[in-house]
Design goal:
Two copies of one chain form a homodimer.
Chain A: H1 15-22, H2 27-35, H3 39-48, H4 51-60, H5 63-70, H6 75-84, H7 90-94, H8 99-109, H9 116-119, E1 125-127, H10 133-144, E2 155-159, E3 165-170, H11 171-176, H12 183-186, E4 194-195, H13 200-210, E5 214-218, E6 224-229, H14 230-248, H15 263-289, H16 292-297, H17 299-303, H18 305-328, H19 337-370, H20 377-408, H21 418-441
Parallel strand pairs in A: 1-2, 4-5
Antiparallel strand pairs in A: 2-3, 5-6
Helix pairs in contact in A: 4-6, 6-8, 13-14, 15-21, 18-19, 18-20, 18-21, 19-20, 20-21
Amino acid sequence: MTELTRATEDQRLSGAELSEAWRILDAGERVDGFRLLSPTEGEEFFLALSAHDQFELMAALTPAERKLWVRLLAPDDAADLLQEAPEAERPALMALFDEPTRREVTTLLAYAEDDAGGLMSPRFARVRPEMSVDEAILYLRKQASQKLELETIYYAYVLDNQQRLLGVVSFRDLFRAKGASAVRDVMHTDLVSVPENMDQEAVGRLFAQHDLVALPVVDSEGRMKGIVTFDDIVDVVQEEATEDIHKIGGSQALDAPYLEVGLPSMVRKRAVWLAVLFLGEMLTATALGFYVDEIERAAILAVFMPLIISSGGNSGSQASTLVIRAMALSEVRLRDWARVLRREIASGLALGLILAAIGFLRIVLGHELGGKYGEHFLLLGATIGLSLLSVVLWGSLAGAMLPFLLRKLRFDPASASAPLVATIVDVTGLIGYFSLASWLLRGTLL
Amino acid sequence: MTELTRATEDQRLSGAELSEAWRILDAGERVDGFRLLSPTEGEEFFLALSAHDQFELMAALTPAERKLWVRLLAPDDAADLLQEAPEAERPALMALFDEPTRREVTTLLAYAEDDAGGLMSPRFARVRPEMSVDEAILYLRKQASQKLELETIYYAYVLDNQQRLLGVVSFRDLFRAKGASAVRDVMHTDLVSVPENMDQEAVGRLFAQHDLVALPVVDSEGRMKGIVTFDDIVDVVQEEATEDIHKIGGSQALDAPYLEVGLPSMVRKRAVWLAVLFLGEMLTATALGFYVDEIERAAILAVFMPLIISSGGNSGSQASTLVIRAMALSEVRLRDWARVLRREIASGLALGLILAAIGFLRIVLGHELGGKYGEHFLLLGATIGLSLLSVVLWGSLAGAMLPFLLRKLRFDPASASAPLVATIVDVTGLIGYFSLASWLLRGTLL
């Protein structure tokens, strides 16, 4: 931050005020606001921005400012920032970093963004097994005061001379141990580490299971490459849930905040699934084409059509979202499909019976009160009731099994969205409904 | 763990093996497996279990074992365990704790489970502002080696003699500072703290924004009551996302893993919404009751009915899930409703035009290929196209605005589930469709 752009005390803005207003400011106003922050607040504010916002802010700053701010970034965050930039602008951004950071960032960029390697920072504290506890503490103190800031000094990783990970020692352990003991005797060897290419969703689950501050990342030969810290994980967990929710709602994941996605991109991400579902749903018109005669003879069947197919869609949507989430949390795995199937048969029957009873009562009561269903109202009631029971059972089964099928075929189970399940159940449910009606009402209404 | 129940080396099971099998074991098998773990693995395994599983496991252990294991729990986790127990069994469980823990747990139980107070642990490291850095390090070392384990020694909170929070000092700060400086001069005073009754979802957002390891919790007079640590937050973030996903799918949140919810409870949590939606969807039958004549005269209108209402439901489901998630992440707030409305008008029009074009083409092509739509096929195509455009636009608007309405009325916006939006759009969409058809097709098909 240069003297020219730095505001005087009385014009200052607080970071919280700027955060509050951020989303409704345009690029120019954001930069103006950012320059009004005190240096400490500016630093905290900049580091808390998403990589996307950091990149947009950078674009509006002067080259001198840009250099100052990017140098605050840890290498994993610097790599994230670079990934926001179009390919052509990356070399210019890269040139802003100092030499060691540039090397680290280049290594990190080689990893897929969603892998453990793409999340990790290479700046971890390391000690040797043969050091004494006192030496280790001194050595950590030296590492902690180096120019390149470490992600955490609270966990030090014990590496042999091939950089292979032998164990971990927390600062707390060192602190409690006798100064003359060897690190080798104080370290924990039963540590959890992750391979470089582990998916970030799986890394997130490990963090949640083990309540860790940091996880070491090792290559296939056991050499330690970096650490993933808990602060990256909260973001990962949120991101993964957002992706799943967007998919469950029946669109592609937006991958950016709702209000910041460009309209063409938003329409594209929604149109694809909407059109696919529409083409699928066209099969309802095809199926119904075969029942035009029945509809003309008993229009009352068409009247109950939306009620019946929507009940199937709703029970399917419940079942699929419960199973998708249980899979994302590893509560349910592929091999549990038969247990889930049994549960959904039971739930589907129970739920179907409840709706069938309400539907049947509605027709009987409707008849008693208005008489509009004709002499065969009991038969009509039975048709509607039986259709509801079957469609709810079928919806629950289809909704619960589709995520398994998708995972088995190596697709994301979250693509078993509420609308997709509803579409499948609509088409099949209509055929079931009219088949049942043809069978039960032949000779009376039909 | 007594000698009697402890297995010999060769019978031992690893924690990972037990975790793997846990979900498919019954209570007795779980206890047997648990007793086969080595003491270290048993400890790690027990602490990683959910409060629910801990409670069930406890019930199957001997009283002596029970006492040993509960004493491993930090007070916040102990309070969670107690909340799993029926009211009548709590005093017996409480009696297992040592006196200081019992006092802490009693205090924590007074907070709502979803508040910052319900998440926090009272075991934080504290120092006085007038201490020197060297004194503070010594004092922390003493606190770290006490019997009651602190949640973290890496952040020490600076309190005055009224227990009011003045600042925070990280171990790293102390480590780098000169030994003779006063804590007062090293501490950070610009710290984020949260009130006791802040909702856990808001606490989770603060963690994500500020990349914190721990957040201090203060009462209304600024007195520090405890800390919330990052490991509780990953769980909170997952839990909140799970609740939202369950609601978006159209059921109540299960509040437990899918395979572990009792069947009656699962059916109850799904039946309520399913029945409400069913009652709402009955309005489609009521509405269609007014169009029986039209359906008898032009059964073709009924044939396209599912296609049209499902398109409205699908676009509504997309819009509502995108808005619900954006609200949960604070990307969209109540006052942003007009901006969201403008975006959805634009997206809804674009998406509606796409589907209208496909729908129109399908009818024209269907006519050219099979001739089944009669001489008025262009008029029918226009009716279907126009209905699709209106229903998709209407679905997008209704889906996007319903979460705002729910939040305004202080309900959970996530209750604007895909099925609820679909139901609303089904009823209104049908009326729109038949009104449009009556107007455009009068004198031809009708």
